[in-house]
Amino acid sequence: MYATERYDVIERMLRDDARVTVVDLASRFDITTETVRRDLDHLENTGVLRRVHGGAVPADTASTSEPSLSVRTQRHSAAKAAIARRASGLIPPDFQGSIFFDAGTTTAAVMQQLIPVLADGNIEVVTHSLAIAYPLSEVPSVALTLIGGQIRGLTAAAVGSGTMRSVEGLRPDIAFVGVNGLSAAFGLSTPDAEEASVKREIIRSARRTIVVGDVEKLGREALVSFAALSQIDVLVTDGMPEASLQTALDEANVEVKVA
Predict the structure, then answer these.
(1) Which parts of the chain fold into alpha helices (H)?
(2) What distance in Å separates the CA atoms of residue 180 and residue 191, rounded to the nearest whole number?
(3) Are residues 51 and 94 in the same domain?
(4) 153 contact partners, CB below 8 Å, separation of at least 6
(5) C-alpha dihedral over 108, 114, 120, 126, to 10 degrees?
(6) 29: which of 60, 69, 148, 257 lies 20 to 30 Å off by Cα?
(7) What is the pTM of this model?
(8) Which of 7, 95, 96, 101 has its CA nearest to residue 56?
(9) Which residues, in sequence order, are CB contacts of 87 under 8 Å at separation 6+?
């Protein structure tokens, strides 16, 4: 097999499995590990992947990688819709209290699912996300509080010391929290330190935390950890976690709901 053919196969494997190892590739192609490493070096130089210990992962899985809000809205839309339906079902029809929506495209999908319930006016809604607040502001009967602060353009979320102080002064009954990475060793993580600080305060303040994220986030580690698995109550995702992560979630008493 020519090198260019191997490059195509490696790219497909990364799309399907989100990781390749040097040993597995050497066995698959019947080539030396040195040749595999040269292939991976080439693909890293062309922006296809990122080298990690023992292999490689897609380039966009770097710990600081964070697509824009508009790009993320288009990604995994079917999975987000399924997760949102499953997560919204955790709110009983007669629920009265308060819900905090963290910034994120999956939490926004949950909000959209819950609009008929929120429109009854018996639920206080709090968010620091412009993308979540705007559609809710168009529903006259929704009791909505938008927390202000410095707006981070990439995610349309308020961040900073003022935002954190506002969150510290709240005690929402339920918080829906988004995540960029969730792993057994590193817990919940996100690329930006300021957003991590706000997420940390949301989880500390909430009586019950429901984390929503597609299966692609599971096993990943972004730059900044903002919570341990033991600090959350429920994980709603669209696929079963791999065995070691599931064990860690069980030990942390986290309920896993699969959409």
Answers:
(1) 3-17, 22-29, 33-45, 69-74, 77-88, 105-118, 130-137, 161-168, 193-205, 243-251
(2) 7
(3) no
(4) none
(5) -30
(6) 60
(7) 0.77
(8) 7
(9) 110, 113, 176, 210, 212, 236, 257, 259
Query: Are the C-beta atoms of 231 and 254 separated by less than 8 Å?
Result: no
pLDDT in the model for residue 49: 87
Write down the pLDDT at residue 18: 78
Structural domain ending residue among the three candidates 19, 39, 61: 61
CA angle 162, 164, 165 (to 5 degrees): 65
Per DSSP bridges, beta strands 55-58 and 20-21 are antiparallel
Backbone angles phi, psi at 157, to 5 degrees: -110, 140
Residue 18 — φ and ψ, nearest 5°? 65, 10
The label of the residue with tokens 């339920």 reads 174
If asked whether residues 98 and 155 sit together in one domain, one would say yes
| CA pair distance 147, 70, nearest whole angstrom | 22
CATH code at 128? 3.40.50.1360
Which amino acid type is present at position 166? S
- Dihedral class, residue 195 (left if φ above 0, else alpha if ψ from -120 to 50, else beta): alpha
Instruction: Looking at the structure, tell me whether residues 173 and 209 fall in a common domain.
Output: yes
What is the H or E stretch that residue 146 is in?
strand 143-146
CATH assignment of the domain containing 57: 1.10.10.10
**In terms of residue numbers, what domain contains 82?**
69-258
pLDDT at 50: 86
The total number of structural domains in the chain stands at: 2
